[in-house]
Structure formats: structure tokens, C-alpha cells
Amino acid sequence: MTGWRSARAILIWVALALAIGVPIAAAAGSEQLAWRGPVYILAGFAGIIALGLVLVQPLLIGGYLTPLSAYRGRRAHHWIGGALAFAVVIHVAGLWITSPPDMIDALTYASPTPFSPFGVTAMWAIFAVALLALMRRRLELRPRTWRLIHMPLAIVIVVGSVVHCLLIEGTMETISKAVLCVLVLAATAKVMINLQVWRKRRTLRGESVARQ
Predict the structure, then answer these.
(1) CA distances for 25 relative to 30, 35, 47, 95, 189, angstroms
(2) Which of 72, 88, 186, 206 has the maximal Cβ count within 10 Å?
(3) How far, CA to CA in Å, does 28 sit from each of 1, 108, 114, 178?
(4) For the Ferric oxidoreductase domain, which residue ranges apply (predicted)?
């Protein structure tokens, strides 16, 4: 049993590395980079890395990235969330430097490109979660309240990021991009379902004990 768990953990880490690394490598080999400036390229890769971090987040909170303990997984989830927000800042700042008018249109939801509103909405949700996480103790948010706020925002982040990515026809290779997006959706859905089932079981057990 221990051997199977170790093999499963290795497979998960390898799959995660491939899921994030292959799209980055494919984008690095794109012919479109020859026509892009360094700031634009940096912004683009920051966006790819951000999507990869969105995949890491549910895996951490779901406890799939062993040998990390539950505590270390939650701590890593916190720091990866900060890294995600930073990557988004680099992504947006780089695009702003290269084309301020386009970014103004995007941020004001006036852009004609269909992918812009999804990316901007996901961005605001990421910033909202990061800000609330920093102020959680000061606001004295209880775990249940935090979940009620965090879960809907997480869904907005995942859906917005995936749709934003899929609609963009850029340096990312189509198949590896689609696989990464599917994995982000699947990992998020599985973790959210598992957490809901676990909480329901815990609630039912508590009610059963109270009745005895």
C-alpha cells in the first residue's frame, strides 16, 4: 500500500510538471515570439505561469501533493496564492506598457476582444482573494465565512482564467493549452466536490453524536 501511495505521488508530481512545463516550452518555441518585444513576451509568460499556479492551488488544498502535510499544503497554498497575484500583476503591467489604450479598454470592459472580460474578471477575483487573505485575521473571518467568500471567488478565477486562455490565439500551442485548461477545471471540481462531501459527513457525524 505504501509503495502504491509513493508511486501515485510521483505520478501526480510528474503529471503536474508536464501539465505546466509543456505549454511553457511550446510557447517558448512559438514563431510569434520573433515579432514580439521583451516586455510583451514577459507579460505573456507571466500569464501562462499564472494559469499553471491556478492548477497547483486546488491540488495543494486537496492534499494531493504528497509528501506535503496538510499544514504545509495550506501554507504553500497561501504563498502560491501570493505568487499567483504577483504573476497577474506582471502580466497586466507588461501589457499596459506595450499598449496602454488596449489595457484601458480591457480594464473598463470596453475591449472588442472576447477574451478580455474573462481575464479582467478573473484578475479582480484573484486580487480580492489575496486582499482578504491578508486581512483575514484583522477582519476576524471565521473558517465558514472564509469558505463562503473564497469558494465562489475561486470558481470565478478558474472559469475566467480558463475561458480567457482558450479564447486567446497567441503563442501557446493549442493542444497543450487545452489539456492544461481541462486539468485546471477537473482538479478544481474534484477538490470542491470532495471537500463538500467531507464536510457533509462531518456534519452528519456531529448530529449523530449529539442525538446519542
Answers:
(1) 9, 18, 14, 21, 27
(2) 88
(3) 40, 31, 25, 17
(4) 47-160
Residue spans of alpha helices (H) in 69-173:
70-98, 100-107, 116-134, 136-139, 143-167
- Expressed as residue numbers, the domain containing 85 is 2-211
**Residue 186: its H or E element:** helix 174-211
Q: Which residue has the cell 509528501?
A: 67
* CA 15 centroid distance within chain: 16
pLDDT at 204: 46
Classify residue 122 by its DSSP letter.
Answer: H
Q: Positive or negative CA dihedral for 78, 83, 84, 89?
A: positive
Please report where in the chains the cell 491556478 appears, as a residue.
54
pLDDT less than 50: residues of the chain: 204, 207-210
115, 164 Cβ separation under 8 angstroms: yes
Total domain count, the chain: 1
